Amino acid sequence: MLQEIPELQIAGEATDGLQAIRKAEELQPDLIVLDIGLPSLNGIEAARRIRKISPNSKILFVSQESSVDVVREALGTGGRGYILKTDAGRDLVAGVNAVLRCEQYVGRRFSNNDFVKLHEVFETPIESIETIA
Question: Quick one: how far is CA 102 from the chain centroid?
Fold first, then answer.
């Protein structure tokens, strides 16, 4: 789906949490799409480490985890967005666009929850869009 968004350039892919950290450090992408259920290191712990080594990268979680507590924890790592995998078809493009505009985005299933903006606000303009999927 991300390849169909003309403004995006996919710079890399990772198959586990440790590889995601290495790619984030190497590529310093504008956007990182991250799953919670990654092997070797889960997405929440990977996000915590990524925030330290690639602080300007924005993180959008796309996961099968539907617990409000998990969403809150993911956003608490500095993630700017959270979408359920089952809803990615209708929420992914909107989520990517919102996160790249430095806005918080949670999928429609979570619209009744009041998530406090738990991430840092970055004022850096985006000149090129690169993504790790």
Answer: 12
Give me the CATH topology for the region 2-132: Rossmann fold (3.40.50)
CB 131 within 8 A of CB 29: yes
Per residue in 67-85, pLDDT (tens digit) is 999 999 999 999 999 999 9
Kindly report the pTM of this predicted structure: 0.83
In whole angstroms, give the CA distance from residue 115 to residue 117. Answer: 6
Q: Which residues of 43-58 are buried (b: 16+ CB within 10 A; e: fewer)?
A: bbebbebbbeebeebb
Residue type, 67: S
Angle at 112 between CA 71 and CA 59, to 5 degrees: 30
Distance CA(45)–CA(49), nearest Å, equals 6
